[in-house]
Specification:
single chain, alpha+beta, eight-stranded mixed beta barrel, 44% strand, globular
């Protein structure tokens, strides 16, 4: 019998998407930056991601965020994002959850009112604006990554569906943006399974036909995301609302609308000339939760005009726990995990 191993979690959610924040029990990872540490996890220690997103500990619809020491002195902490599709360099919902967890765990002491600090993601520094009322973290506003439209109004024949019109945005990952109404969806919870099946077919077809390259990062892998867009309602002069659903390949419909999905929508609305700096878009999920994206401006990165934006949401603490890992359990795979646990 081997000695059980353990590490510590704070389970959180933002908009319904559960993020499991690993706050203790993991040894320091090699790498001169959080991005390099992410590469180490991906290539040499993927067991942590698989353990927490697979039976018996988790399900693929969850995410995992590992808190690591920041390598940039301007940041209070670093974090690495893990999802069913792998290791995205950025995620709005995961950033909201991680910021909430570092405040609730005392890694960053809470201050009443508004407080600002930075976190270091694999994509770089992220500005966090937290609102704390009566000791409760009521909202987190985080920077979205510079976002842009790579492809506008392309079309593809999808087996079982027919001709589909789509645009491609980059907002931390490449997103296929499709009109939900054109595909026969109202974006209500009862459609969740049908949305997943439809998105799977579209993503598979696009992946088989073409790839996408970021203007500075180059090849970042096959298309991982699809975002169903509902009609846009103008609520006020500077405020819009739209039902939205994000799919992660393979097979996951996110509970929230996702921060990067909201950033992608802002990039598309700017591309179409429908918003101006200071305008906000609330995306509303199948579960009636929402994030608010604000279009704050544009700038050039090389020859690419990108959209600056922020995402606002609320994170909730669900549980504080110690995960016990028994490598003798036939349901548990310790390969790719034991060597990064502090007791290992």
């Amino acid at each position: 019998m081997s000695q059980p191993l353990s590490f510590q979690l704070i389970d959180t959610h933002a908009g319904g998407d559960v993020s499991r924040i690993v706050i203790g029990g993991i040894a320091p990872l090699p790498g001169a930056s959080v991005r390099e540490q992410m590469h180490y996890l991906r290539d040499d220690a993927d067991g942590l991601r698989r353990l927490l997103l697979e039976e018996p500990y988790g399900i693929p619809e969850m995410s995992v965020d590992l808190i690591v020491p920041a390598t940039d002195t301007a940041a209070a902490a670093g974090y690495i994002i893990m999802e069913v599709m792998g290791y995205p360099i950025y995620s709005g919902s995961n950033t909201i959850c991680t910021a909430t967890a570092v405040l609730e765990s005392g890694i960053v002491p809470k201050q009443e009112g508004h407080q600002q600090f930075k976190l270091e993601s694999p994509a770089g520094l992220v500005q966090i604006d937290a609102r704390v009322e009566n000791g409760v973290v009521e909202s987190i506003t985080c920077e979205g990554l510079p976002s842009y439209i790579d492809t506008y109004q392309a079309s593809i024949q999808v087996p079982g569906i027919g001709k589909v019109t789509y645009s491609i945005a980059y907002s931390g990952g490449f997103y296929a943006l499709v009109d939900a109404t054109e595909l026969g969806f109202s974006l209500v919870r009862e459609e969740e399974r049908a949305l997943a099946e439809c998105a799977h077919k579209i993503v598979e077809a696009i992946q088989a036909e073409r790839g996408f390259s970021h203007y500075s990062l180059g090849d970042v892998g096959p298309l991982p995301f699809l975002h169903f867009m509902g009609p846009v309602e103008r609520v006020a002069d500077d405020f819009y609302r739209s039902r939205s659903t994000t799919y992660v390949h393979p097979g996951v419909i996110c509970r929230s609308t996702t921060g990067t999905g909201t950033s992608a929508r802002l990039a598309l609305m700017h591309h179409e000339g429908r918003i101006k700096p200071g305008d906000r878009l609330e995306t509303v999920s199948l579960r009636e939760t929402g994030f608010i994206g604000e279009f704050t401006g544009t700038h050039l990165e090389g020859s690419q005009a990108v959209v600056e934006n922020t995402i606002t949401g609320k994170g909730y603490v669900l549980a504080r726990s110690e995960i016990v890992v028994n490598c003798d359990d036939p349901m548990v795979e310790c390969q790719g995990l034991r060597h990064i646990l502090t007791q290992g």
